[in-house]
């Protein structure tokens, strides 16, 4: 059973348990913790949620896939240029009077690709995040794996972690069949929870 999400998040499929954790941050985005970690199996909607959240509530989105950086470049590039902890920007409003309450939201995608030592190098910067900035960490986990298994303990202790894994159900496969029109619900159901395979198979058929 899914819970209806406020627009523009309504296109996303979430269980009531997941929505109950995310809807309070959608309705009152300023309550989102300084560092939030979204984790789960590949393709469950972590990066999509982070990008939609940021586009609606931040003046500037800093998106960076950590798998594009070698360990040696994490500090110089991600720290110096991307985490805007010391930057002040005037807060503006939406045309529909909804306020963009953050100056920056920094999305650190594929954070699991950093080794534990490289992850730990972010801890000091995370402690300096200003009230009108937020950081969202996105990590992939395997089945029965938690965020604590993937994150350095210093980062885990600083992050509010939300599991976005979705159960393998026929209702979920029917939802996905509307998105991946080249596959039947039965095919999608047989591939779940491997969203990467669903995306790959749908693309192969379309070619």
Short characterization:
The chain is α/β, with parallel strands linked by helices. Helices cover 40% and strands 16% of the residues.
Beta-sheet strand percentage?
Answer: 15-25%
Helix fraction, binned, reads 25-40%
What profile does the largest beta sheet have? Answer: 5 strands, parallel
Classification by helices and strands: alpha/beta
Low-confidence stretches: 85-97
Strand order of the largest sheet: 2-3-4-1-5
Mean pLDDT: 83
Number of helices: 10
Work out the number of β strands.
Answer: 5
Q: What is the element string, with H for helices and E for strands?
A: HEHEHEHHEHHEHHH
Overall geometry comes to globular
Distance between the termini: 34 Å
Radius of gyration: 18 Å
Structure commentary:
This protein is α/β, with parallel strands linked by helices. It has 10 helices and 5 strands. A 5-stranded parallel sheet has the order 2-3-4-1-5, with helices on one face. Helix 3 (71-82) links the parallel strand 2 (58-65) and strand 3. Helix 8 (170-179) crosses helix 9 (185-191). The chain is globular and about 50 Å long. The two termini are 34 Å apart. Residues 85-97 have low confidence and may be disordered.
How are the secondary structure elements laid out?
Elements: H1 16-27, E1 35-40, H2 46-57, E2 58-65, H3 71-82, E3 102-109, H4 116-120, H5 123-126, E4 133-140, H6 147-150, H7 153-156, E5 160-163, H8 170-179, H9 185-191, H10 195-206
Parallel strand pairs: 1-4, 1-5, 2-3, 3-4
Helix pairs in contact: 8-9
